[in-house]
Automatic annotation (TrEMBL):
Main location: cytoplasm
Family stated for the protein in its record: Belongs to the ferrochelatase family.
EC numbers on record: 4.99.1.9
Annotated Fe-coproporphyrin III binding sites: 56, 125
Pathway where this protein functions: Porphyrin-containing compound metabolism; protoheme biosynthesis
Keywords for the protein's UniProt record, in alphabetical order: Cytoplasm, Heme biosynthesis, Iron, Lyase, Metal-binding, Porphyrin biosynthesis
A GO BP annotation: heme biosynthetic process
Organism: Actinocrinis puniceicyclus
Protein name stated in the entry: Coproporphyrin III ferrochelatase
Length: 359
């Protein structure tokens, strides 16, 4: 019996991104279909992609993650083919599910490249799966899907970020290092979506765990740390999570910490938000303020994170077999369920069918 029984495949489900200048506008149309995003914001975000030759880093990072997982699985004797599908760009998840059904996959486990609960990172992916099952014909072909829980609290996600934050502190001049502030960063959300999920509480938990781990590793206590947001969009009239990282850096008082390390806990790899909003924009803001600044690495293909994904697959498989594995989880919010509760991560403006939930 395979270690991952009852599953015969893993699906990596992600956001997708453009791979050349001609892809940028159609990609943005896919992302924003049916949403109230002002035209000026789209032009601005398009410019971020054009700034990098029209190529988002996300697809290459997903290819690298899949290659790392394949090596890890092979090394552990775990025989589980890996498929990849996206919400907004090729390979589209509907095409992937159709391919999986054609290959004879009957039951697959789904890993989403978003560690936290929110409409965008949880329910919307479950809606994508429901729609893709329909349109690609995979549902009628007998394929069934189970999702891996939100994994923001897995030690294999948190611990690499503690190490990368310590490394980023090490890149600062020794004279400001111990006084540097930790500026945790994640994607902003409209308040209505923040309120329908545990998004903010989960990020506070990770920020606290990383700050604690850094304190332990460096022996420096009392360091200032703040949770900030990036990539706000939507109309100005709509309230979103704040403060924005740029505003936060500008508004720090002259007596504030002597340096800042941005820690992008909201992203599993160096997405456009990281390479643009942090490495480009926030770094420029810090330079204008003469504030020494460094950015911690995302988990990416860190071997501990790759092993954590394997652990999450095996944990989910054990529960699917009716066993009670002990989930690896830090913090005190409690492990998120495999099958989302009714109303979990709801979008009050849209009610669409979704898989892997009880509504
Ligand atoms: C919570 C969250 C995550 C994290 C969870 C997850 O990973 O899913 C995430 C990920 C991502 N968001 C991304 C890109 C974009 N997000 C947009 C728009 C929006 N994101 C939102 C939220 C989130 N987004 C929201 C509430 C909107 C407003 C419109 C809407 O309600 O949908 C827009 C439209 C323009 C704009 O408004 O900025 C773009 C281009 C990329 C690709 C980056 C790359 O190319 O590397 C990734 C990984
Ligand atoms: Fe987004």
């Amino acid at each position: 019996m395979s270690l991952a029984s009852p599953y015969d495949a893993l699906l990596l489900l992600s956001f997708g991104g453009p791979e050349g200048p001609e892809d940028v506008v159609p990609f943005l149309e896919n992302v924003t279909r049916g949403r109230a995003i002002p035209k000026e914001r789209l032009v601005e975000v398009g410019a971020h992609y054009f700034h990098f030759g029209g190529v988002s880093p996300i697809n290459g990072q997903n290819r690298a993650l899949i290659a790392a997982l394949e090596r890890d699985f092979a090394g552990q004797g775990l025989d589980l083919p890996i498929y990849w599908g996206n919400r907004n760009w090729d390979p589209y998840v509907a095409d992937t599910l159709a391919q999986m059904a054609a290959d004879g996959v009957r039951r697959a486990v789904v890993f989403v490249t978003s560690a936290y609960s929110s409409y965008s990172g949880c329910r919307q992916y479950r809606e994508d799966l429901a729609a893709a099952m329909e349109s690609g014909g995979a549902g009628s072909a007998g394929l069934s899907l189970d999702r891996i829980r939100a994994y923001y609290d897995h030690p294999g996600f948190v611990e690499p970020m503690i190490r990368s934050t310590v490394d980023a502190l090490g890149a600062l001049d020794a004279s400001v290092r111990d006084a540097a502030e930790l500026v945790f960063v994640t994607h902003s959300l409209p308040l209505v979506l923040a309120e329908s999920s545990l998004y903010v509480e989960q990020h506070r938990t990770v920020a606290h765990l990383v700050a604690q781990g850094v304190e332990l590793a460096t022996g420096v206590s009392g360091r200032v740390s703040t949770l900030t947001y990036c990539s706000r969009s939507g109309p100005p009239s709509q309230p979103w999570l704040e403060p924005d990282i740029g505003d936060h850096l500008c508004e720090r008082s002259a007596q504030g910490p002597a340096a800042a390390v941005a820690v992008p806990i909201g992203f599993v790899s160096d997405h456009m938000e990281v390479v643009y909003d942090l490495d480009t924009e926030a770094a420029e803001t810090a330079a204008k303020l003469a504030l020494p600044f460094a950015r911690a690495a995302t988990v990416g293909t860190d071997p501990q994170f790759v092993a954590a994904i394997r652990d999450l697959v095996l944990e989910r498989a054990a529960r699917a077999r009716g066993e009670q594995p002990r989930p690896k989880a830090l913090g005190s919010l409690g492990v998120m369920p495999d099958v989302c509760r009714a109303g979990c991560c709801a979008n009050p403006r849209a009610h669409r069918p979704a898989l892997c939930g009880s509504d």
